[in-house]
Write a structure and sequence with these properties.
- By secondary structure, this protein is an alpha+beta fold.
- Helix content is 39%, strand content 28%.
- The strands form 2 sheets. The protein has a 5-stranded antiparallel beta sheet. The chain has a two-stranded antiparallel sheet with strand order 1-2.
- Helix 2 packs antiparallel against helix 3.
- The N terminus is likely disordered.
């Protein structure tokens, strides 16, 4: 019996080893809107924290989860869009655009968040491509296209 179990384990090892790696090799952490720090940021990283454009899995303080694409500063998502696991999206904008007599503040903030999400998804796709993770690179290219198609006018 022990011999059969050993053979089954040995047969399963190549299947486990062949699974694509979930990260790009960069161990960056990101948090959004009071949620916990999570790993897997694909993009610019400084001292283990997300910095600049990129994308990665996030959890919000209210328990919602998804993929955030956008800009980060010191490990905090500051401007972008999170595509939620349960459907829909969530705009992340720590600092709204300044109001002015000819500027619609909400529209300008949304526009900037979407533009940052496009750049973040592209940066994540490139990081995964460089790491040889073709499926993840494809996912982030497709995410960018979905964000562009879903941007409100």
């Amino acid at each position: 019996m022990a011999g059969k179990l050993s053979i089954l384990i040995l047969l399963a090892l190549p299947l486990i080893a062949a699974a694509p790696a979930p990260t790009t090799g960069v161990r960056c952490r990101i948090a959004v809107e009071g949620g916990p720090m999570t790993g897997g940021w694909a993009g610019t990283c400084r001292a283990g924290l997300a910095e600049g454009s990129g994308a990665g899995r996030v959890s919000f303080a209210d328990g919602e989860t998804g993929v955030f694409a956008g800009r980060a500063r010191s490990g905090q998502g500051v401007s972008g869009i999170a595509l939620l696991d349960q459907g829909g999206f969530r705009l992340v904008a720590i600092t709204p655009e300044p109001a002015g007599p000819t500027i619609d503040q909400a529209a300008a903030t949304s526009e900037r968040a979407f533009r940052n999400s496009f750049a973040g998804a592209a940066a994540a796709a490139e990081a995964h491509r460089r790491a040889g993770n073709t499926p993840s690179a494809r996912y982030y290219r497709q995410l960018r296209a979905r964000l562009i198609a879903g941007q409100p006018e």
